[in-house]
Protein: Histidinol dehydrogenase
Amino acid sequence: MPMLIRKLNSTQADFAEQLKTLLAYEAEDDTRIENAVTEILVDVKKRGDAAVLEYTQRFDRVPAHSMAQLELPASELKAAFDGLSTEQRTALEAAAARVRSYHEKQKQDSWQYTEADGTVLGQKITPLDRVGIYVPGGKAAYPSSVLMNAMPAKVAGVQEIIMVVPTPDGVKNPLVLAAAHIAGVTRVFTIGGAQAVGALAYGTATVPPVDKIVGPGNAYVAAAKRRVFGLVGIDMIAGPSEILIICDAHTNPDWIAMDLFSQAEHDEMAQAILLCPDVAFIEAVEASIAKQLPTMPRAETIRTSLADRGALIQVRDLDEACEIANNIAAEHLEISTQNATELAAKIRHAGAMFLGPYSSESLGDYCAGPNHVLPTMRTARFSSPLGVYDFQKRSSIIHVSPAGAQTLGKVAATLAYGEGLQAHAQSAEWRLKN
Amino acid sequence: MPMLIRKLNSTQADFAEQLKTLLAYEAEDDTRIENAVTEILVDVKKRGDAAVLEYTQRFDRVPAHSMAQLELPASELKAAFDGLSTEQRTALEAAAARVRSYHEKQKQDSWQYTEADGTVLGQKITPLDRVGIYVPGGKAAYPSSVLMNAMPAKVAGVQEIIMVVPTPDGVKNPLVLAAAHIAGVTRVFTIGGAQAVGALAYGTATVPPVDKIVGPGNAYVAAAKRRVFGLVGIDMIAGPSEILIICDAHTNPDWIAMDLFSQAEHDEMAQAILLCPDVAFIEAVEASIAKQLPTMPRAETIRTSLADRGALIQVRDLDEACEIANNIAAEHLEISTQNATELAAKIRHAGAMFLGPYSSESLGDYCAGPNHVLPTMRTARFSSPLGVYDFQKRSSIIHVSPAGAQTLGKVAATLAYGEGLQAHAQSAEWRLKN
Structure:
């Protein structure tokens, strides 16, 4: 029988090297994709609607004759919502309410202060005017992602949220449309791929140009987002999903095995790792994996993900587990221990932390409140979950009083002359009163 | 005599088109630069110190035999500081103190809250571990930029700040070294270009790998930063500097002309624009430009910048000026009017706002307090000044209580089944107590 999941031990001499190999992931730098995306973007920039329509006909096999046919009216979103089962509608509304409530705490306010000489300094916070939300179509169409991308923008005060979602062969996902209704999306176009990113970035006669594009997508969408970065803002470029679990052996091993599955079922490249000081518990989790795997509808994806990229790692103790976790800087970190809060204080790098045995990562994916769009591939070392702050920006406020200009002017002039910037110096000196 | 600066009028039928042409700027997409940068990065990744040393010998003509020779000891930074004139030292210290004080107000704190069922949600804020600061060498070596890039990192709590600054022909700038001393930079290497960006991103035997690289640079540096984005964080890709002035004709026209110069003297591609409802004042500014220009050491740069990219624009009124300013989303916006605070309330998009006749942009460049690293090329629509927030990141905290897992688990399971993610559903259901 082939290996279910590799087992490592942090006391092994070559553990650091093994861990590095385990974590190694380079997104393929596919020249063919880059070239195709460049061509599509240039074409959309030049021909607008006509180009978007043609690519949509070709790639999504949608026989529309005009861009107008590719826009979904608000009534269709509402109808999708009304058509849900009571259970689904209630669940979606509960999730939306909790996500909204958490994100409202992230909202930042403008501030300013006045100095003794009357000079006022501050920071003005404003929402972006108009943003684009990319929602994948087909098998990875997730209503939860609609909520997680649109609600922070809504809470930030963004006036127009333009959603794009491809509908291959014209098949729409009612849950996705219902989520757009709940989240308060302004307009929805059934377009996708690089052509949708181009339409949002450059604008067409039908699709208004946005200031920022967020949301996950395939390799073409990622390449297109990277390409239009600078003209518009983008969120992160997402890699495969990751879960890292620290467990003290007091959680039911079936729970831990299933938590590992819940990441592995996303994608064969997803990564699920357990850190535990107890060898008997690691064996119990391994046995549970073997027992539960055959019952999973996505067993094959899980099997490949665990075999190729998963690991059960025996560590010396929970402190060492925290050190390793800081090195891995995982997207999702479950600390399934009795003293979870204490251990969490030692964690510097993680997208989201799930503390205690009851905080399964799936609760965070849907309805705990915090965002499920999180930094992957060790980028939690320098980046953050998607949030309201991604849809607000700051402007510095500098209101120098006549008195303030006297002291600041001399400092500025001295430094400006030192840099050889005489107009800077002179501009400050004009405000000096002799 | 050739045109000093173009004059436009917002009532002209083709004004929108003219403004668009005026603002148009596309950074050249130079394949030669891209290829050179790719080659250098690959080489630095593979050969580390040896590659960095060779490129530094070749491009900067620095005859060092080892990387150790390219590191400046702390004592050399201190000596540079001690060697400054009293006036320069005092000015630099005053600027540093004000920049520190303003940025301390940007620092964000962790927060959390407990729900009725005992579930705790929150956001943990942590500084980045180690950052790299790129400081240009040669003619554009600005000590003020050292302060503006390093101090927010310091305030954020970053433990290690690694500065790189090329020293072509071995020439060091004492003001830059003194600024590094004041700002509390951890280590300084006299390397630059794509090789310095590569060393910071990948790490070498001598240069430690960083989590984020900030700071301005030439086209090679910009291309290299864009290329390593994802492996490390980067700040914005900066375009030419811009100033937009709204004036009600009550400020001395000599001041306004000099404020326009202070941007134009940076670079022939810099952009300086005046919006004013008063035609007589516009003529007075034009006359002042003609009068003051010959006295400027950088007259040729200013002349080219104003002629190629500058404009004096007559607007209908100050409200229209604000609308145009929101469209331009300038890096620096001076509102040199009597009712500046009132007008500032109408501005949604600007990197920094300088209010009232005494707030010359140059005061903000050096010592007012707010950062001078600001979004250019209309990116103030979606991005912010460099700040403490660029050196902090967030981790979501989710600590679900046993009771919370009952309500959240049902919602999550319903939505997970709707998305076809059975392991997600099962993982939530494991926590349900029957």
